[in-house]
Amino acid sequence: MPLIRHDTYIEAPINVCFDLVRDVEIHTKTTSKTKEKAVGGVTKGLLKEGDTVTWEAIHFGIKQRLTAKVVEMEIPHKLTDVMVKGAFRSFTHTHAFLEHGQGTIMKDTFEYRSPFGVIGKVVDRLFLEKYMQRFIIDRANELKKLAEEIS
């Protein structure tokens, strides 16, 4: 089961960073490369524990839908969402926030299981894990830019 970890230092207060991560419209802006948009569940505003959102995006040239549920939230330190329906067999994505000097460290932890057993494991090794890592890093960089512009 691949596990992706990525830390980003953001020169912005922890509450700004946390709220940007749970803002549905900001999620859309930070994933524009995949044309991601909310099409079900909560489609605007700030997510809270128990909320679900269905995202539609284009990955590998294919339009896909994925529904995630916020299963844990400790404002402004932690948000965890899990896939409840979608292309993966499962995934858990945790965003943790730590105050650091004048800014915040955002820690992304993304753990997933691909479908299709052995074939899924081969796909992970060939390209999916690198693709997902790039997706997580790109989104973190976009969040960093937005948070630092606001602050």
Q: Could you walk me through the main structural features you see in this protein, from its secondary elements to its overall organization?
A:
Strands 1-7-6-5-4-3-2 form a seven-stranded antiparallel beta sheet, covered by helices on one side. It is built from three helices and seven strands; from the N terminus they run βααββββββα. The chain starts with a strand and ends with a helix. Strand 3 and strand 4 form a beta hairpin. By secondary structure, it is of the alpha+beta class. The chain has a single domain, classed as START domain (Alpha-D-Glucose-1,6-Bisphosphate, Chain A, domain 4, 2-Layer Sandwich).
Give the percentage of residues in beta strands: 35-45%
Count of discrete domains:
1
Tell me the CATH superfamily. Answer: START domain
Structural class: alpha+beta
Q: Identify low-pLDDT runs.
A: none
Query: What does the radius of gyration come to?
Result: 15 Å
Average per-residue pLDDT, rounded, comes to: 96
Q: What can be said about the biggest beta sheet? A: 7 strands, antiparallel
Along the chain, the helix and strand elements come as: EHHEEEEEEH
Helical content stands at 25-40%
Name of the top-level CATH class: Alpha Beta
Shape descriptor reads globular
- By CATH, the topology is Alpha-D-Glucose-1,6-Bisphosphate, Chain A, domain 4
How many beta-strand elements? 7
Query: Span from first to last CA?
Result: 37 Å
As laid out across the biggest beta sheet, the strand order is 1-7-6-5-4-3-2
CATH architecture: 2-Layer Sandwich
Number of H- or I-type helical stretches? 3
